[in-house]
Amino acid sequence: MARQLSVIVMMAIALFLCISFFTSFGRAPAETAVFSQPADRFNDNLPPSDVKPPVKPVEAVEPASRPAEPVKPVKPVLEGSTESKLAGLEITSDLLTGAAIAPKLENATLKAELGRAAWKVLHTMMAKFPDEPSEDDQLALKSYIQLFARLYPCGDCARHFQGLLKQYPPQVSSRNAAAGWACFVHNQVNERLEHEIFDCNKIGDFYDCGCGDDKEKKGDEEKTTATGELKKEG
Fold it and tell me: Which InterPro entries match (predicted)?
């Protein structure tokens, strides 16, 4: 009897455990299903989690580029309104043709002496200029004449000479062209001052450039060369 009672108790306990197990196993998925829903389900204003909002495409950002530097215009070299570099200095048309710098020279005697010396320098320079000058030679002489006029230490004389340069630009294509131009503008000044007019074909007779010494030296060199060749032949 006692044995049967023990068996009944054990079977009751086993049945209770089985009922508890199946009860808890059936409840777990429901609870999990309730609490596994995203928080957005409890907000009526938000869309369901399975509906994804449209994604805006990302535009490619181009790298910032530096603005191109402006290209400086290239100007011709030999004209009066040109710019060039000479002896490390930038020579511009404003520099060459600017207003005369010196004040008026009141001393008439000093003015006359200065004029004679200046014309001698100018005519001698033209007589020594190359027969076939390079572009640099032509630019150098043209620049010198323009600066000579601007820096001339007699203000009134300088302004008058600058006016002549505008009316009769320097001719620098050859020695004869430069020398003829210098004689012509000199006569323009002589005419204004009522001085004697030069014969440009004989300007070298009045202003000795020392060119005769060069010819004599060249002749001596030719004679020496010829004598040496005759000695070798003998």
Answer: ALR/ERV, ERV/ALR_sulphydryl_oxid_sf, ERV/ALR_sulphydryl_oxidase
Residue 137: CB atoms within 10 A of its CB come to: 14
* Residue 114 is assigned to a structural domain of this protein: yes
- Judge whether residue 117 has pLDDT over 90: yes
CA distances from 79 to 107, 119, 169, 189, 229 (A): 36, 25, 10, 25, 49
Distances 133 to 69, 172, 177, 179 between C-alpha atoms, Å: 38, 8, 11, 13
- Non-local (6+) Cβ contacts of 157 within 8 A are 105, 111, 114, 115
Of 45, 154, 177, residue with least CA distance to 102 = 154
Q: Look-up: residue for tokens 């012509």? A: 184
CB 139 within 8 A of CB 86: yes
Say how far apart CA 129 and CA 133 lie, in whole Å.
8
Q: Are strands 84-86 and 89-91 parallel, antiparallel or unpaired?
A: antiparallel
Q: Which domain holds residue 118?
A: 108-206
pLDDT higher than 70, residue 211: no
Give the span between the Cα atoms of 201 and 180, in whole angstroms.
8
Asked if residue 155 belongs to a domain, the reply is yes
Q: Given CA atoms 206, 207, 208, 214 in this order, what sign does their dihedral have?
A: negative
Amino acid 54: pLDDT? 59
Question: Would residue 125 count as lying in a domain?
Answer: yes
pLDDT (tens digit, 9 = 90+) per residue, 183-196?
Answer: 999 999 999 999 99
Specify the amino acid at residue 104.
K
Backbone angles phi, psi at 137, to 5 degrees: -60, -45
Please check whether residue 153 is in contact with residue 117, taking contact to mean a CB–CB distance below 8 angstroms: no
How many folded domains does the chain comprise?
A: 1
Can you point out the beta strands (E) in the chain?
84-86, 89-91
